[in-house]
Each structure stands twice: as structure tokens, then as C-alpha cells.
Amino acid sequence: MSSPKRILLVDDEPGITSTVKFALGDRRKYSVLEENNSLHALQRAREFQPDLILLDVMMPGYDGGDVARQIETDSTLRGTPIIFLTGLVAKEESAAGEVLGGYRFIAKPLRFRELVSCVDAVLEAERPRVALPS
Description:
By secondary structure, the protein is an alpha/beta fold. The protein has four helices and six strands. The chain has a single domain, classed as Response regulator (Rossmann fold). A hairpin with a 2-residue loop joins strand 5 and strand 6.
């Protein structure tokens, strides 16, 4: 059996991160690390080297767009898939995993079946990452 895929979950609401971690971690195919402070997200990503990042859009400190830009410019993290979690769109306006601005997003409040389906699809399609020289 292969090792669990690593997912970094960045959201300023601990209730959301713990619930999502439980929903994904219960499947035993994912190892989920929670980070509730966007200012620490980049460092946590460097340490954890996730296969996927679930990233809230609206957070104090750095917003999700700021964190995504930091990840995309980091030579060890560039190319890591990101799924935005956002309350800025209505469920009717999005399907789970809809792509906007080059990133997938899922509307809040989260429907866990949709979240798991989107995470599975992204990680099954992912190719191994290769760190690029800086």
C-alpha cells in the first residue's frame, strides 16, 4: 500500500480545519496538516511538502491569493495543486472543483462528498513534482 497523500489545509477557522481534517483523514489515504494562520502557511508548506493545498480565500494577514502567489514562486512548492475554499460564490454558481483564474475552487459551506470527490480527482491526476532550480 502506498503512503498517504499529504494535504495542507489553510483556513483561519479552526472548526473548518478540524472538520475537513476528520472527513479526509478518516479515509486513511490522506495525511492532513492544519494551519490556521495564513502568515505561517508558506513555512508549513515548505516543511510538509504537500501533494495538495486546500486554501481559504478570505483570511486575516495574507489572503488565499497572497499565499498562492508565494507558493507558485517557491522553487520547492511550484506546481503544487491548490484548491481554493471560498464563501465568495454561491453553490449555484459553482460545481465542486470549478476552475477560476487557473485554480480549482469549492464554495463554502462545504459539502464533504463534493470536497472528497474533487480532492480525489486532483490527486489522481497529479504527476510527481520535480523541484526546479532557483
